[in-house]
From TrEMBL:
GO terms for cellular component: cytoplasm. Keywords: Thiamine biosynthesis. It comes from the Bacteria. Pathway: Cofactor biosynthesis; thiamine diphosphate biosynthesis. This is Thiamine-phosphate diphosphorylase. CDD domains: TMP_TenI. GO terms for biological process: thiamine biosynthetic process.
């Protein structure tokens, strides 16, 4: 079942100045149509407290709500999908567990990983890191603009239609060059929620991508 995937994904993060709930409220008011709630520091009860408020906000604004990992919360809140960060996760098994109606995204940092996600039925992929990022530190090689260009070329040659989003340290000034590589869209967190003016930052991203 082919799902609608938005071209700009806003990802919440643990930051001092704004709660996850506040981040989602601001993003939705700015026009966000896709929010990924990424919180790996709270108990299930705390997560559900957040998610239930966030889901209500997303419903009010017609925004898709994706939750990072925490698939055990399926059915306990109004969640449209999950983003799985484990690059070794079995997406065939996840699909069987979550069902066809649930949107499932995955993370990859190699072309081989993208191909596997496509073959195992992921609905989209976050491909990164584009450049150095403090939001989700890892030791993976930086992809850079040329890396995205090469990856998308290989996917097209193999008739792979997986929506690929550039993620990891993307700023507004990078968007034009990234979109020219053929990536489907952009996922962003710190460049928006740690900008000082989150509304303006979101709109800057949105205006570049729409």
């Amino acid at each position: 079942m082919k799902k609608f995937i938005e071209k700009l994904h806003f990802i919440t993060h643990d930051i001092e100045q704004l709660s996850h709930i506040q981040q989602v409220q601001i993003a939705c008011e700015a026009g966000a149509k896709w929010v990924q709630y990424r919180c790996l520091t709270k108990s299930d009860d705390e997560l559900l407290e957040d998610i239930n408020v966030i889901a209500e906000t997303c419903d009010d604004w017609g925004t898709t709500l994706i939750v990072t990992d925490h698939i055990h919360l399926k059915g306990k809140a109004d969640i449209q999908g999950f983003h799985i960060e484990d690059m070794d996760a079995d997406f065939v098994q996840l699909r069987a567990q979550l069902g066809e109606d649930v949107t499932i995204g995955g993370s990859a940092n190699t072309v081989e990983g993208l191909i596997r996600l496509f073959r195992e039925g992921a609905d989209y992929a976050g491909f990164g890191p584009f450049t150095t990022t403090t939001t989700k530190p890892n030791n993976a090689p930086l992809i850079g603009v040329e890396g995205y260009r090469k990856a998308i070329k290989i996917l097209k040659e193999q008739s792979i239609t997986l929506p690929v989003l550039a993620v990891g340290g993307v700023t507004v000034k990078d968007i034009d060059a990234l979109l020219e590589t053929g990536v489907f869209g952009i996922a962003a967190s710190a460049a928006i929620n740690q900008s000082g003016d989150m509304t303006a930052a979101y709109l800057d991203f949105y205006d570049k991508i729409r």
